[in-house]
Amino acid sequence: MTTLNGVLLDLATIDQGDLDLSSLDRVCGHWQRHAYTEPVDTLERLSHAQIAVTNKVALDRQTLTAANELRLVCVAATGTNNVDLEAARELGIAVANVARYATPAVVQHVFALILALTTRLPEYQRAVSSGAWQRHDRFCLMDYPIRELAGRTLGIVGFGELGQAVARVAEAFGLQVLIAQRPGGPSREGRLPLEALLPQVDVLTLHCPLTDTTRGLIGARELDLMRRDALLINTARGGIVDEQALAEALRRGTLGGAGIDVLSTEPPRGGNPLLAPDIPNLIVTPHIAWASREARQRMVDEVAANIEAFLAGKDRNRVA
Ligand SMILES: NC(=O)c1ccc[n+]([C@@H]2O[C@H](COP(=O)([O-])OP(=O)(O)OC[C@H]3O[C@@H](n4cnc5c(N)ncnc54)[C@H](O)[C@@H]3O)[C@@H](O)[C@H]2O)c1
Ligand SMILES: O=C(O)[C@H](O)CO
């Protein structure tokens, strides 16, 4: 039995009391469990820990530098933008993320958003709940134009685990798939620079990480390049999109709609341009694309496997 101390900084963002946490108990002798950790408490909670598990608690350079005993940070997510990876590398603190745990959940969420927007589900649901259908003089109320996906084009930015899984389902819907070339990355056959891809797509879906390069990747200029009836789907990270520019494009009608699962600040306590009630054809969900029970259980078991590998001196899902 190991004598390492572990700290779970934001367990309530992972477990709703519905998960089996025994894999974590097997790999670390002593866990300090916290439902949430506010920034003011982070350092104190890390002070005696050799292993920290964080979903969204930010671990910046200052915090990592002061956490003298820390040897391993396990990010309980694929996105690692809440941890200063460069600082961790310099300080010799290993960081591991969880890859591929949420693919079915995220893919179904991406298509839930695309399908809801193309079939105008929110508007038709409101028409029924407000009594508009009941008052109608014909059998079918069709006030909102419905479109088909078959024969249209889907653009994907970020062709990793999630981008590729979305592409497979897209093909089953009869969508043609175009892939954005990674700036500065190797040019590959069939991939297009973003600015060449944008005017060609009916739906653009984002699956790249949030990094210094992708922050603000989809701004006013990129939105202007898109078709007036195109849809933007963002289940990646809020900071990849200029939210003010997106709100304006939807209001002006220069973009057809958007399905957004992630915002630049979460929770959006200080408000967000995309939460204004007057924006048409916009669906915002509270960062839940990943959150099926099955995916959360896989995540816990993957975090445990990362810790076990680290203790055995092996690299597993290491990002720093
Ligand atoms: N909303 C959610 O619940 C949820 C769940 C899981 C993951 N995510 C987000 O989705 C992201 C992607 O997850 P994944 O599992 O597919 O990761 P991944 O690492 O398998 O794939 C990311 C891909 O993006 C590419 N990329 C990076 N920068 C790019 C750029 N500028 N242009 C084009 N491509 C670029 C990379 O080369 C890689 O192929 C995560 O980083 C995370 O932020 C969100
Ligand atoms: O990156 C991820 O795994 C999801 O956004 C959940 O945190």
From TrEMBL:
Keywords in alphabetical order: NAD, Oxidoreductase
Entries under InterPro entries matching the protein: D-iso_2-hydroxyacid_DH_PdxB (IPR050418), D-isomer_2_OHA_DH_cat_dom (IPR006139), D-isomer_DH_CS (IPR029753), D-isomer_DH_NAD-bd (IPR006140), NAD(P)-bd_dom_sf (IPR036291)
Gene3D superfamilies: NAD(P)-binding Rossmann-like Domain
Molecular function terms, GO-annotated: hydroxypyruvate reductase (NADH) activity; NAD binding
All residue ranges annotated as the D-isomer specific 2-hydroxyacid dehydrogenase NAD-binding domain in the record: 111-289
Domain of life of the source: Bacteria
Record keyword NAD present: yes
E.C. number: 1.1.1.29
Family: Belongs to the D-isomer specific 2-hydroxyacid dehydrogenase family.
Matches recorded under PANTHER family: D-ISOMER SPECIFIC 2-HYDROXYACID DEHYDROGENASE CATALYTIC DOMAIN-CONTAINING PROTEIN-RELATED, D-ISOMER SPECIFIC 2-HYDROXYACID DEHYDROGENASE FAMILY PROTEIN (AFU_ORTHOLOGUE AFUA_1G13630)
Protein name (database record): Glycerate dehydrogenase
Provenance organism: Thiorhodococcus drewsii AZ1
